[in-house]
């Protein structure tokens, strides 16, 4: 199901052939390999969290801030969906639900790292669409939404690199028009 569900933010912006929720989750899992040994983070938990963090969307859909659903209601809907999913998963269900809730509460360093990866992925995807679709600067709202929110220094450095590359693309495209 998730491999067929397009991400809402891109659909609302009329992005052609937008990524799916499963595609996003897979790239998040791949980004989890960026964890190095210096950070004292549980790599396994981070990878698990990247694969679980949007799982509830197979039931509730991809709810964005622009959908008009209050954050508390979104969290309640997603938690209820995860409870239902985890009931089907036997003895692994409680572990998966615990990891999901840890991510949602943002209380552990691993959960915060995964949230930063989620934000980095958003920047990467927006930049890719601007470049692919020849629309530099058109997805600025996504960059603004992330501005100043990435906490982890290494991920923040990667975000700055993407923003700088985007700036070069925008200058190049504006001078060629």
Automatic annotation (TrEMBL):
<dbReference type="GO" id="GO:0005737">
    <property type="term" value="C:cytoplasm"/>
</dbReference>
<comment type="similarity">
    <text>Belongs to the HDDC2 family.</text>
</comment>
<dbReference type="Pfam" id="PF13023">
    <property type="entry name" value="HD_3"/>
</dbReference>
<comment type="function">
    <text>Catalyzes the dephosphorylation of the nucleoside 5'-monophosphates deoxyadenosine monophosphate (dAMP), deoxycytidine monophosphate (dCMP), deoxyguanosine monophosphate (dGMP) and deoxythymidine monophosphate (dTMP).</text>
</comment>
<protein>
    <recommendedName>
        <fullName>5'-deoxynucleotidase HDDC2</fullName>
        <ecNumber>3.1.3.89</ecNumber>
    </recommendedName>
</protein>
<keyword id="KW-0460">Magnesium</keyword>
<dbReference type="GO" id="GO:0046872">
    <property type="term" value="F:metal ion binding"/>
</dbReference>
<keyword id="KW-0479">Metal-binding</keyword>
<comment type="subunit">
    <text>Homodimer.</text>
</comment>
<dbReference type="GO" id="GO:0009159">
    <property type="term" value="P:deoxyribonucleoside monophosphate catabolic process"/>
</dbReference>
<keyword id="KW-0378">Hydrolase</keyword>
<feature type="domain" description="HD/PDEase">
    <location>
        <begin position="17"/>
        <end position="132"/>
    </location>
</feature>
<dbReference type="GO" id="GO:0002953">
    <property type="term" value="F:5'-deoxynucleotidase activity"/>
</dbReference>
<dbReference type="InterPro" id="IPR003607">
    <property type="entry name" value="HD/PDEase_dom"/>
</dbReference>
<dbReference type="InterPro" id="IPR039356">
    <property type="entry name" value="YfbR/HDDC2"/>
</dbReference>
<dbReference type="InterPro" id="IPR006674">
    <property type="entry name" value="HD_domain"/>
</dbReference>
């Amino acid at each position: 199901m998730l491999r067929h569900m397009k991400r809402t933010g891109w659909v609302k912006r009329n992005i052609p052939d937008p990524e799916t929720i499963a595609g996003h989750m897979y790239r998040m899992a791949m980004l989890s390999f960026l964890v190095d040994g210096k950070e004292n983070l549980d790599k396994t938990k981070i990878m698990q969290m990247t694969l679980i963090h949007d799982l509830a969307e197979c039931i509730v859909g991809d709810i964005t801030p622009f959908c008009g659903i209050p954050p508390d209601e979104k969290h309640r809907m997603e938690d209820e969906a995860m409870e239902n999913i985890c009931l089907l998963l036997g003895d692994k269900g409680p572990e998966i639900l615990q990891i999901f809730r840890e991510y949602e509460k943002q209380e552990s360093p691993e959960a915060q790292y995964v949230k930063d990866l989620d934000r980095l992925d958003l920047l990467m995807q927006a930049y890719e669409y601007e470049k692919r679709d020849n629309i530099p600067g058109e997805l600025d709202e996504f960059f603004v939404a992330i501005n100043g929110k990435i906490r982890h220094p290494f991920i923040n450095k990667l975000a700055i690199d993407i923003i700088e590359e985007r700036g070069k693309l925008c200058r190049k495209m504006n001078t060629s028009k």
